[in-house]
Write a structure and sequence with these properties.
Two copies of one chain form a homodimer. Chain A is about 25% helix and about 15% strand. By secondary structure, chain A is an alpha/beta fold. The first copy, chain A, has an eleven-stranded mixed sheet with strand order 3-4-8-10-9-11-12-13-14-15-16, with helices on both faces. A three-stranded mixed sheet of chain A has the order 1-2-5, with no helix packed on it. In chain A, strand 3 and strand 4 form a beta hairpin. In chain A, helix 8 packs across helix 9 and helix 9 packs antiparallel against helix 13. Chain A starts with 17 loop residues before the first strand and ends in a 23-residue tail after the last helix. Chains A and B meet through strand 7 and helix 7 of A and strand 7 and helix 7 of B.
């Protein structure tokens, strides 16, 4: 994803490294003991139609450069690209491509396969959007095959045009079906890249978590993966049905002047016109419902059974036994980093200042919240109590509980609580865990603490790698860690001193929620995007 | 520009590193002995109007994330992002920002300042477009202040609307005037970043070279820089005048349905409509002239005296004494790398194959060209004679000669001829020199040769740094190197064994040109872009 100081000369010759796929030969790059194959086309698709298998080719095709990333409705510079280093890339709706990092291209190695599903809700992002998504270090250190996938998003991935005729019955699912197609590609081709198609783990953060939970509720994806790891990937509380999705399609068609008769033109109009129409539909959606439109596939209880985070939705029998890791981050969207650049290390504030701010944020609950925070995180300064996320943490707790109650497979819960070094000291934010999950925190200015990051990323990446190898995240670098049960809620707290705690933040979360300080939508200091330039409209 | 494995913890606190500029305080980042300030706004501007000084601000403003890059008409994935690693970024027409890398923020250090002006003709690119543009390694290794600048391009930077009224008399110059404004910012502020405003060097490649030559022909830029280094930055053979630029404005206005009366709307229409109109104007231009439109400021012999590469244009008295470095690359657009990915190392071809290809490419001149190539590059295999650029090299030779003939200041000439490791072995291509100029070839998969790159980048970056310090590129790491005179044409050939050669490729260039194998437009294997996704239209 980004250049790294090389140890060896990189090799990408016509004859090495070359692998045979179902569709033809691919030439990648070998460098510093890692094989890298970028921009592999796993499907082709017409706009608003299901993905199909790619065409076969003669000879050797280059897989040395990334493929285009999904078209977005708008592309902005994050409020602080310093705390979240990004890798933007040219966009296209023809973005069905994936990347592979692997220590071996021996068919008999059968290494665990970790498929990264990116975040950005189901609206934004790409397989390479955030620099931390680079799989090289994780593949080498963990001796695993890392795959990252691009697939259609937003209006291109989820616009439900089924009310416009049989031909479009699947248009609300094509974004998810791209993902399914990519997993079929993994099943059929990953052995050539040293991977084991019978041991595939999905891991994803934020929107990547939603998408994993949705895949678990889509019968067509059954059997294509064997375990899942969901990071800060909850908090979704609405889902489309064909009924409540129809008005969105109507608004867009209306804006474009299209009718049932002329709707086919929507497949060929320039993308920026479609994006403009989508912005119109966003505004109308807020007028109608009071809420922001969140793209999802429509629930029909055939193709898709709904996101299990939503009241009343059950895990499917076919997938409920899938082992799960689930974790979130202490600060998430409320992290102090979003204003520490002005105020510096919050642990240097006076007691008076902290108490005043706690009162302002939590009102009558301030004292109880501070007391509970001290019990939950005894080593942290009181000011950190201002930046406790419950927007992600609470649904994660509910997800783990629900799985225990519904007799699902094993679920392990974690939280990333380590103070980040930037701006003198900041609670970790939404995305801060990825540099550690991918085992390369030493590449990130805002997150690297010499002598500390090395150990913590061994613990966190080691957890995912152990899970990938054994279906159990326990490894010798960490204390023993048990699953969530009806009467036991252990959480691995990843910090300067990582340890397992039991129900350690239950009361804290409930109090913060009572105080109405949920973060986004709540009273707390929330993360705002810079509203930078838009690539399209 | 891209994450690097860090040695120290990066620091970006409210109080350090903070510098005072004319407009207010800026907070950057300190990491691994380099201070980095990203996305500094040096001007603000209305569309099609001259840049103005930015507003002042209170408190400390963050300069930790890059600013938006210039809007392009289309953004594509290069044919091979492997040989040319890119760093794309969100675009905006409000892109008047620059980046600073410096080893010191002591006002009294007064280090030489090297201002990088990016390529992409005057149509494409940005200050951070190519990963090699990152200034950190050069600033630290060379002990210099490196600045890179974003400025308006294409229709936004050069559309000459002067025929639509007094208000738009400058619109054809605003892209260049952004650059001038950035150099004024350097003059007034760079001391706070450890730089010497009295010792400013401009260096740029490809379109960056055009832009430097154009600045030398614009009186308003006089005194803002003290030496120039032009890399593969020639070959431009047309220039606009108000007369021949007018039809372009007319085509765009016509497409947008704008008249003299309504032309002001062109300042507020959505950018993608303007981009669409521009594509229309591109097609019309080709119909009218048979040539591709190349944006330039219009020659009026007041604001701009024309590109001195063009027949009959003289260097201005005010700038002709400016010392100049001028160099190009052996392969440029004809480099073998553009098909070596299929054929591998050309030095493994049989003599028969090589001779057949030479005949095919050079016809009756094949034998003479091979003989001259062997004289010019005795250590290189015959197949390399197929990939000799003259499209850049010849105008560079002419530029150096013209300066000698016109009694201009000293001019040193170089060529980068080192075989690149990718695809088994490739002649160096257009852009291949930048990883060496910026002293970080070890970050580039396609260019790094352990044990060799380290020395060659010391030689090349050392040449620019010596020139920045002393106005003379000679340094102890290289053989003695003289300027071009009327009767002497020395060229520093940067290669595994760098040496000064005299008129070494004169006959070769003339023969290749006679054979009509100019590269682009010629018969030779030329570099083609992948025609990847477009960000706008």
């Amino acid at each position: 994803m980004y250049p790294k100081r090389l140890i060896h000369q990189a090799i990408s010759n016509p004859d090495f490294p070359v692998v045979e796929t179902k569709y033809g030969k691919l030439r990648g790059t070998w460098t510093d003991d890692c094989f890298i194959f970028r921009g592999i086309e796993y499907a082709k698709a017409r706009r608003f139609h299901l993905p199909e298998e790619p065409d076969c080719w003669e000879g050797v095709k280059a897989a040395v450069a990334y493929g285009p990333v999904p078209d977005e409705i708008s592309t902005r510079i994050p409020g602080d690209a310093f705390t979240e280093p990004h890798y933007w890339y040219p966009q296209s709706e023809f973005c069905q491509n994936l990347n592979v990092w692997t220590p071996s291209i021996d068919r008999d190695r059968k290494l665990p396969v970790m498929v990264w599903i990116h975040g950005g809700g189901q609206e934004h992002g790409s397989a390479i959007e955030i620099s931390a998504y680079d799989g090289e270090e994780l593949a080498k250190w963990g001796n695993v095959v890392v795959v990252s996938v691009n697939h259609r998003l937003n209006v291109l991935g989820y616009l439900d045009l089924s009310s416009y005729g049989e031909e479009y019955q699947d248009s609300g699912y094509v974004g998810m079906m791209d993902l399914v197609q990519s997993l079929k590609w993994v099943r059929e081709n990953i052995r050539s890249f040293g991977g084991d198609p019978e041991n595939v783990m999905l891991f994803g953060q934020s929107g990547g978590g939603f998408k994993i939970l949705e895949l678990m509720q889509m019968p067509t994806a059954d059997g294509l993966y064997h375990k899942v790891s969901i990071h800060s990937g909850t908090g979704k509380d609405t889902c489309f049905t064909h009924e409540n999705a129809a008005p969105v399609a109507r608004d867009i068609a209306e804006y474009l002047g299209l009718t049932k008769e002329s709707i086919r033109e929507i497949e060929t109009i320039p993308y920026y016109q479609l994006a403009k129409a989508t912005n119109y539909a966003y505004d109308r959606f807020i007028e109608r419902t009071g809420a922001r439109l969140q793209w999802t596939p429509p629930v029909d209880n055939e193709k898709f059974f709904g996101n299990p985070q939503i009241e009343g939705v059950q895990f499917r029998e076919e997938t409920k036994q899938i082992p799960m890791l689930a974790g979130s981050v202490l600060g998430e969207f409320t992290s102090s980093c979003h204003h520490n650049d002005q105020i510096g290390d919050i642990d240097t504030w006076s007691q008076e200042t902290v108490e005043a701010l706690l009162k302002e944020r939590y009102g009558v609950y301030a004292d109880d919240i501070l007391e509970q925070f001290r019990k939950a995180y005894p080593d942290k300064g009181a000011a950190n109590a201002l930046y406790v996320d419950v927007f992600m943490r609470k649904p994660h707790r509910n997800l783990c509980r629900m799985r225990a109650d519904q007799g699902c497979g094993p679920t392990w819960n974690w939280i990333f609580a380590m103070d980040m070094p930037c701006y003198g000291g900041s609670t970790p934010w939404h995305n801060a865990d990825e540099a550690y999950i991918f085992h390369h925190a030493e590449y990130f200015e805002s997150e690297y603490i010499p002598g500390v990051s090395e150990r913590v990323q061994d613990e966190m990446a080691g957890t995912l790698v152990a899970f990938a190898y054994t279906n159990n995240p326990n490894h010798t670098g960490l204390p023993q860690w048990e699953t969530v049960t009806k009467d036991r809620f252990p959480t691995m707290v990843f910090d300067r001193k990582s340890e397992v705690r039991y129900n350690h933040d239950e009361k804290l979360i409930d109090l913060v929620e009572k105080a109405g300080a949920l973060g986004p939508g709540g009273k707390g200091p929330v993360r705002t995007y810079g509203g930078g330039p838009r690539a399209h409209v």
